[in-house]
């Protein structure tokens, strides 16, 4: 039997507020339920931004089949990005665990430094404890099969599955963003530009810079006969995502190692290559790529990396700076809206009725 409107104990405003509370509560439960799998959807969003220019060129301009292009992009992402990145992560975790269990090489270097300086500043027990803590911290933030093959497979499957529908149902996806995000069109445009600049700068640009720096670091260590040059080159690739510090955390200790072993020429050679070539190529590439792939302030990148890695793991290298970029954009929007509000009230623009866009119109291109 239908309930009469007068029998409802809530006012229309209370119903509206309770509806919002229910939506927020259900969204919170969904996010908590997804838990560690949320990175799959965030990764799909990043890959969508990276591959969309290719998708537009092949589907919208050349008229290729949408499903075929999507499957090709998924295969490319899996073979070229996911598999190599996972292999590098596994290699890094395994070797760090090895060094964490065998501290003899590190203790030899530390004892040599202590003999030359005359100060005793550590013990083997402290070094072993520090290395074990580092291994535990890194293992938790790098995607690894050690955390469970099923979990790893589900994350990759969800990411590719989500990316497939984002491309095959592109119009509905973009229209849904415009419809349900609580922002004006110009704000959505700013957020889209911020997303594109951050992803380009921290995925495409930074990955290219990291690859070049890691290659130079690995070659320098190999030329100057540093053990495990390939492994330390992989470490340099991940370290290069960190502004300012980056690769000096790799070739700096390697140079110290050679100097403490009495190989002064090799140690000085590593320092010269690091200071002259590796660090300068970083500055040069950043200047060139900033004009084409988006320019993100180093402070935002550094703070974002620290924030993002703690929350999202290795994906935080991109998501952290993105969060800070979005926060800055929203603060600018808030400031602009507050300045415009008195003018809008004075001109009575607030009384103009809102006109919904035509359902037949396609979504605005965020890029």
UniProtKB/TrEMBL annotation:
Localization, UniProt: Membrane
Keyword terms: Membrane, Transmembrane, Transmembrane helix
Bilayer-spanning residue ranges: 16-34, 71-93, 149-167, 203-224, 230-256, 268-289, 301-334
Superkingdom per UniProt: Bacteria
GO CC annotation, single: membrane
Membrane topology, from the record: Multi-pass membrane protein
InterPro entries found in the cross-reference section: AI-2E-like (IPR002549)
Family: Belongs to the autoinducer-2 exporter (AI-2E) (TC 2.A.86) family.
PANTHER family (alphabetical): TRANSMEMBRANE PROTEIN, TRANSMEMBRANE PROTEIN 245
Full protein name: AI-2E family transporter
Organism for this UniProt entry: Hymenobacter wooponensis
